[in-house]
Amino acid sequence: MDASFASTLLPPTRIFKIIVIGDSNVGKTCLTFRFTGGSFPDKTEATIGVDFREKAVEIEGETIKVQVWDTAGQERFRKSMVEHYYRNVHAVVFVYDVTKMASFRNLQTWIEECNGHRVSASVPRVLVGNKCDLMDHIQVPSNMALKFADAHNMLLFETSAKDPRESQNVDSIFMSLACRLKAQKSLLYRDVEREDGRVRLTQATETKSNCPC
Ligand SMILES: Nc1nc2c(ncn2[C@@H]2O[C@H](COP(=O)(O)OP(=O)(O)OP(=O)(O)O)[C@@H](O)[C@H]2O)c(=O)[nH]1
Ligand SMILES: [Mg+2]
Q1: How far apart are CA 90 and CA 19, in angstroms?
Q2: Cellular component GO terms, alphabetically (predicted)?
Q3: Which of 19, 26, 30, 106 maximizes ligand 1 atoms within 8 Å of its Cβ, making it the mutation to test the pocket?
Q4: What separation in Å is there between the alpha carbon of 191 and the centre of ligand 2?
Q5: What is the pLDDT of residues 14-65, one digit of tens each?
Q6: What is the whole-number distance in angstroms between the Cα of residue 130 and the centre of ligand 2?
Q7: Ligand 1 proximity of 134 Cβ (cutoff 6 Å)
Q8: What is the domain partition of the chain in residue ranges?
Q9: Is this complex's ipTM strictly greater than 0.90?
């Protein structure tokens, strides 16, 4: 069979767009770096606009491209980009710094911004408390964070981008979202179909996922 014909029969690799939001300095760049690159960056600078990081992951035999949008926390570096962050987003990761109460208090504002951009309630959201390696400086107690996460229907991950022992936990933030998105298969295939103009894809939409995540 000719390769170009075969490629029209195969569904294209799906891309899940996940945005990472939160105050400046909470560690969004380091978390996304840890997930996509497997390490902690020696040095970071404030993100300007957005940095894209991608990782191909395999879930139940399907290769999915997780496209992580590492957004800027500083208002002056993000204001022209905000519309782009939220457009066609598939999942949202809210990050705070466990050693900085203000970054936790500000989550309410980040959630309001997200809601204000018509992000549907079906778009999964998770909450991440970063910098747990700084054990002597913790200001946000776990039970307070858990209560907040519950109230907003989010899973809570407390972790550290810096501590290599936490790298699996960091992966599970993004993998749990990718698994949930895969389970919402029909919706996402329809999105892909519209963008590609390929008609066949709706055929494969009914399978229910048994994702282990
Ligand atoms: N101890 C510790 N420091 C961290 C951790 N994650 C990030 N940092 C440090 O926190 C600082 C800010 O990290 P970034 O990842 O650049 O923060 P950001 O949220 O991307 O900031 P903006 O791009 O300005 O929005 C850097 O000095 C990092 O080295 C962590 O898990 N533990
Ligand atoms: Mg950054």
Answers
A1: 8
A2: Golgi apparatus
A3: 30
A4: 29
A5: 999 999 999 999 999 999 999 999 999 999 999 999 999 999 999 999 999 9
A6: 13
A7: yes
A8: 15-184
A9: yes
